[in-house]
Specification:
Length: 110
Amino acid sequence: GARPFHTVAFPKQQDLVVSPDGENSSLVIQQDAYLYYGLFNKPKSFQYLKSLPGNIIYLFVYRCVVETPSATLRQGDAIGVVYGEVLNVKLEKGTEILLFEVPEISATEY
């Protein structure tokens, strides 16, 4: 089964930057949101499992190429996962990413 990103990626090359509870010395945000930064020195495949059902995953590619089941992402590209609970990705050597997990906001909340 899928495991959270931070347990399957390279610990020294990715970090939880922001979280609701300061996990792993991350910055605390007053929202059920997570931000991960990753830099991978060799090819890697992983699954990111949402921390909270109903959240949205956004993956931004800063450098290199990322393959997902639905798209090939290059530098500057992004993809969002609204309805699934898991994001499957394949990373090339040298890939640098930002991965956000944020609560979904309905139109009535604006």
